[in-house]
What does this fold into?
Amino acid sequence: MRRRITGSRTTGARTTGSRTTGSRTTGAGSTGPGGARAAVMGPRPRGNAMLRMRRLLLRVVAGAAAGALAGLGVAQAAAPASAAGTATGSSAVTVSGRGEFKDMRFTVDQTTHLTSQAVTVSWSGGTPTTFAGTLFNTDFVQIMQCWGDDDGTVQSNPGPSRTQCQYGASPTTDRGSWPGNDYDDTRRVFYSADPANYGQDDRYGAGNPNAPGEVPFKSVDGTVITSGTQNNAFFNRNTTNEVDFARTGADGTGKEYFEVQTANEAPHLGCGVPVTVNGGTRPRSCWLVIVPQGHLDLDGNPYADHSQVNAGSPVSSTNWKNRVAIPLGFNSVGTNCALGADERATVGSELAADAMTSWQAALCPTGTVYGYTELGEPDTRARLTADGSAGLAFTTRALGADAGTTAPSDQTVYAPVALSGTVIGFTVERRPKAGAPDSIRKLAGTKVESVDLTPRLVAKLLTESYRNSPWGAVLGDAAATGYDWAKHNPAGLASDPEFISLNPEFADLSVSETPSTDTDLITSLGHSDSARALWQWILADKDARGFLAGETDDWGAKVNPYYSTTASRNPTGIAFDPASSDDYPKSDPWCTIPPGTDATVKQCMTDFHPYVEDMHSGALHTRRADTLWKSSWDALANPPAFKSPGPQTVGSRFVITVTDAASAARYGLQTARLRNTAGTFVGPSASSLTAAATGVTGSGAPEITPATADAEGAYPLAQLVYAAVRPAGIDAAARKDYAALLRYAAGDGQTSGADPGLLPAGYAPLSAGLRTRATTAADALVDYKGPSPTPSGSGSTGGSSGGTTGGSDSAVSGGSGGGTDDTGTGGSTDGSTGGDGGSGATPSAGASTKPSAAASYDGGKAVETTALGTTPDDPANSLRYAVPVGAALGAVAGIGAPFAGGGRLRLPLPGGRAVTVPAVTLPEWLRKRLPSGRS
It folds into this structure.
């Protein structure tokens, strides 16, 4: 999977099409020589006095040029004015209901700096939800997203017109298990000039009062849909973010995770698109609208008939009077950096994606655009190994760490930039079994907040070892040939005795155990270090290793033999080797016509358990409760085919995925606690990620491994992301730009917060030791004095200085460079990561050495980064003086250098920064004018 994010073309969840980039030329770089040339052209001076004056003038001009360049570099490397230095305060908003709902309080936990993400909507003071059979009847909550200005109908609570809300895309077919009445989940209304019941409308439907009418939907572009709104050209069941039914519990409270959509996911709402109003341009704001449905009719009396659903459409004029609107502020969608600006490419780990999308916005005002292309880490390493000019790569392992590969012989600089991890994210709602105790029944429909998982349980999911994973292989007591192993296995995770022993409430919960629920994990296609870490965690556990080898668990469950690590048990005759796996194979060849469908086409394991394109996509589909299994046979289609039934039914959703911590946080997923090697169940948090980072091992790019993350509070799937650069393959300007990125990442980029430029949720700030190592790596790039860019795999070992000699601040590999651990006291000093001096690794079979030029994302229009970056006229701090002060200091240095000796001058700056003024190499035409022997 490859995903591209450009700084000048913002991307929502992170995908854009390709941009053509060119080389970058800085203004300061061209001004210096021009100024020097103007100072020396003209008649040649004669006499010793004139010669001394010319020498002095040359030093002043050259020093000033070098100082100006250094000052510009300092200004670019510093925190831009648009990036906050500290995390912003909470943007949570609480609003009270009205009328029947005056005692209710509705809270949205984040209302500003929004992107494509989830927000938490919670409420209190309500009346418990009731049902008419399986249908929601009274006292539930409905949520939607809208665009537009205040319609002026509620002075105490401004809000949008009901025609501008994304709502009403409930299923049009297969509604047998759907909990709506075809009015409360649509835009259908009955006209009445003087409404007497909720759901009636005093405006729409007047053309035929004896039949339902529809509340139109108006798009931000002015298009109006007046009929067929339930499945219209703008949104449908598979794309809408509406919450048709949210339950209020026995204590009068409720909570729902609402997916906020930008203009990339919902262009008809236009949220986040820059708009100009009264001469100012800012991202378009939108609305989150909550419509509570109660138990009283318009006359104030309780509904008389509780055997049927009395609620009507929330966008009817009668229900709309009770709506609660909360404004939403978005990060900018669209232009973030200057269009057409040259770009510095970065590529690699998805674990860095959310951080990079945030940092890009803050770095745009520096004048450098940093593009980002998502690519699996193994392919990223192959790409950088094969081509040192590829730029900056994000990886969790050093070059040469993959089997069959060798690190390039020239120097590689590694800078830790992000600490995150791989997680098991889920959306699970409680559906009590018949006879469940009252303590469980009163929680019906609420979300399970946490589960505990062992390596063996996750191994069962990844190896398709639950009975219902190969759907249709076991029917009753009969098993298909070769599937006797599955007859006595649990149907799915929720009924697994091992799982219930750790999560006892599931003994009283009912789960429809099918390929779309608890028999597998949603996983991404392709090779990644996250997949490798997950398999390494499984192999570090004795019970999981034994299960994969063919041992039954304590309750008699067996591994799917196609995943057996014992060759004699594996039907292929070849042992599965998880130790070398960095993907999620679907090895079982089972195919069948799904039972009960009357289909004429078979489905196979990749149909029952489809891949998603990346971990972010897995998180999004889990939030939507959509596993992508096309389980519904449509015999009337041409040709007949399977189709998706859409997201799971509210109140009984069960979806689990492998994703990254940042994506899980972005979409409000619950995450599992995993058992670490210390025997403790630990969930992903800033503290548990930090605890795991103390156990990094190796040189060059020391890794967090499940076996070494053995502190009691360490999260076992934490991962430390490095920026890797081969300085010999890029020019000095590129090295300076990448150094600026590293300094920002190690500085303001480690401040947690939702604002553009800060560290998003799902990351732990780097420790002081790791941040120091990152800035040391930045210095190594700027100070690099090795050869000019050469073809891949060549160049001197370790550069002109032979790399580093180990020690606490080592940030390079190659030559004699060594690595460090988090405390800055460890690491190898033998240059082991530098390889054997070979010419560089060859990418493994099937690995691409270049990112795709095409956008790749499964949500319709490519989702783009939504990060607002402003370009101030002048930074409102001392950095505005960096260039002129640098020029002045350079001039002084130019005069004094002949007396001081040496080729470089290191100048201290405020805030602990320092700048090194390098030795100046004058152009050929200027050197000819110097006295003999001077250069």
Summary: Confidence is low (pLDDT under 50) at residues 7-54, 64-88, 791-809, 815-935.
